[in-house]
C-alpha cells in the first residue's frame, strides 16, 4: 500500500472541479486519506518547485500556484504513484490521453488542473 501527494491547482479550484477530480481518482481505486483547501505560501511554493528554479517558466509557475487556493491531498492505494500518474495524464493537456484528468479537463500546460508527485 502506497501513499502519494496530489494537489488540485488554482485553475481547477476556480472552475469548481475539486469533486470531479477526486471522483475520478477514487474510481481508479485510490482512497483520499487527507485533504486541505489552502493558500500556498510563497516559501512553500519555492521549496516544492525548487527543482524548476532557473527555468523559463519558474516565476510564472510560482505566481500561479500562489495566486488562489489549492486543494492539497494524500491518496492511498496499491501502486498509488503510478496509478495516480496514469489518471492525471501528460503535463500538456493537448498530449494527454482522453479519459485522463488533464486530457479531459486541462486547458494549457500552465493550467493543467493537478500536480502529482512522482514519488512516495
Automatic annotation (TrEMBL):
Cofactor(s), by name: Mg(2+)
EC class: transferase
Entry keyword set: Kinase, Nucleotide metabolism, Phosphoprotein, Transferase
Single GO BP term: GTP biosynthetic process
Family matches, as PROSITE patterns: NDPK_LIKE
A UniProt-annotated Pfam family: NDK
EC number: 2.7.4.6
Purpose: (Microbial infection) Catalyzes the phosphorylation of dZDP to dZTP, when the bacterium is infected by a phage that produces the substrate for the synthesis of dZTP (2- amino-2'-deoxyadenosine 5'-triphosphate), which is then used by the phage as a DNA polymerase substrate.
Identification of the protein by name: nucleoside-diphosphate kinase
Biological source species: Staphylococcus aureus
